[in-house]
């Protein structure tokens, strides 16, 4: 296949695809129905034209018949007056009119036959057009319903995809929130334990340890109080050893001098 032929095939395929996409079957069906109605109108007009021609021939034949009857009367009157020559002339004219009447009668029969055929064709075409109209409306309704269903399915599919994306976004947001909450809690614990300095300046490391010791002493006191209420013996807590400085201070009486 030559390059030009291949290019022509490709262009034709693309053009057909564009036309198929742009074509609405409902519009095509309506156009076909309109063409059939135009054809039916032409057939009916043809019937009317034939009927008009037939009527014109009938009128012309009637005029000729009236002339023939008049010539017949003139021939009789001429004979009664002894004018055989006038009677002969009248009869000759009447014979010529009779020939014309015969020709008109032949045309009239042809037009009658043509009219009958056209009427039969018109009736058949009318029936086909009505059947096509019913089928057309049914097909249009089916196409409209299918089109609506397709749009609904596309909308539902798009909504499902969007909901899936939203679900993933919400899951990511929840994960980040949980991560930030855990990080904040861990930072609070580290700050409270003194592992991290409190940048607000509220407490320093030494104060944090003192606070921790104070909390432990308070818990121990509450524990001893509960044991006392329950009648349980408690072992005296051993006081922490005093520093050498503190012992020396306690050994010296207040206001006294060392020996």
Features:
85% helix, disordered C terminus, mainly alpha, Helix Hairpins, rod-shaped, 259 residues
Highest-level CATH class of the domain at 18-162: Mainly Alpha
Give a short account of the largest sheet.
none
By secondary-structure content and strand pairing, the structural class works out as mainly alpha
How many helix segments?
5
Low-confidence stretches: 236-259
- C-alpha geometry: rod-shaped
Instruction: Summarize the helix and strand pattern as letters.
Output: HHHHH
Percent of sequence in beta strands: under 5%
Write down the overall mean pLDDT: 78
Instruction: List how many beta strands DSSP finds.
Output: 0
CATH architectural designation of the domain at 18-162: Orthogonal Bundle
Distance between the terminal alpha carbons, to the nearest Å?
A: 128 Å
Helix content: over 70%
* CATH topology heading of the domain at 18-162: Helix Hairpins
The radius of gyration over CA amounts to 61 Å
Describe the structure in your own words.
- The protein is mainly alpha-helical and 259 residues long.
- The chain has a domain at 18-162: Helix Hairpins (Orthogonal Bundle).
- Helices cover 85% and strands 0% of the residues.
- The model is unreliable at 236-259 (pLDDT under 50).
In a few lines, what is going on in this structure?
The chain is mainly α. The protein has helices at residues 3-22, 25-80, 84-193, 205-229, 244-251. The chain has a domain at 18-162: Helix Hairpins (Orthogonal Bundle), CATH 1.10.287.
């Amino acid at each position: 296949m030559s390059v030009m032929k291949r290019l022509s095939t490709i262009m034709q395929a693309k053009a057909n695809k564009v036309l198929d996409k742009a074509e609405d079957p409902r519009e095509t069906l309506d156009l076909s129905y309109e063409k059939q109605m135009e054809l039916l109108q032409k057939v009916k007009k043809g019937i009317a034209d034939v009927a008009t021609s037939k009527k014109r021939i009938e009128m012309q034949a009637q005029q000729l018949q009236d002339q023939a009857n008049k010539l017949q009367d003139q021939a009789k009157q001429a004979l009664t007056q002894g004018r055989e020559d006038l009677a002969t002339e009248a009869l000759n004219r009447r014979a010529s009119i009779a020939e014309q009447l015969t020709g008109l009668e032949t045309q009239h029969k042809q037009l009658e036959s043509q009219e009958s055929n056209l009427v039969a064709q018109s009736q058949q075409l009318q029936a086909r057009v009505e059947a096509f109209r019913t089928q057309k409306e049914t097909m249009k309704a089916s196409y409209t319903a299918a089109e609506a269903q397709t749009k609904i399915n596309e909308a539902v599919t798009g909504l499902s995809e969007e909901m899936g994306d939203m679900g993933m976004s919400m899951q990511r947001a929840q994960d980040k929130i949980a991560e930030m909450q855990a990080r904040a809690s861990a930072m609070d614990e580290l700050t409270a334990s003194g592992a991290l300095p409190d940048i607000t300046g509220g407490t320093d490391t030494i104060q944090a340890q003192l606070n921790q010791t104070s909390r432990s002493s308070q818990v121990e006191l509450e524990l001893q109080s509960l044991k006392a209420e329950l009648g349980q013996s408690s072992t005296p807590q051993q006081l922490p050893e005093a520093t050498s400085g503190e012992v020396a201070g306690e050994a010296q009486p207040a206001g006294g001098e060392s020996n």
